[in-house]
Specification:
It is built from two helices and three strands; from the N terminus they run E-H-H-E-E. The chain is an alpha+beta fold and 77 residues long. A hairpin with a 2-residue loop joins strand 2 and strand 3. It is elongated and about 55 Å long.
């Protein structure tokens, strides 16, 4: 048997890049507004970002060949 076996990826391995469709400023605003607004006010204020797609990309190696993968999640939020 060959010794080509590699270790499994862990949570610390940054092998997947996720592109979030909101800015860090908007994310901070959401964190700040969530405890202050009612459910209806919060949903109304941030409704435009609800249907944006989230893209995840990975560059993985299988059998010695590097391959790019992409996933698109629609209506993730």
């Amino acid at each position: 048997m060959s010794s080509n076996l590699k270790r499994l990826a862990t949570i610390e391995d940054a092998i997947i890049e996720v592109e979030i469709p909101i800015t860090s400023e908007e994310l901070n605003n959401r964190v700040k507004d969530y405890p202050q607004l009612s459910d209806k006010q919060f949903a109304t204020k941030y409704r435009r970002g609800r249907y944006n797609s989230v893209v995840a990309k990975a560059l993985l190696t299988f059998f010695g060949r590097r391959r790019k993968f992409s996933w698109i999640c629609r209506n993730c939020f």
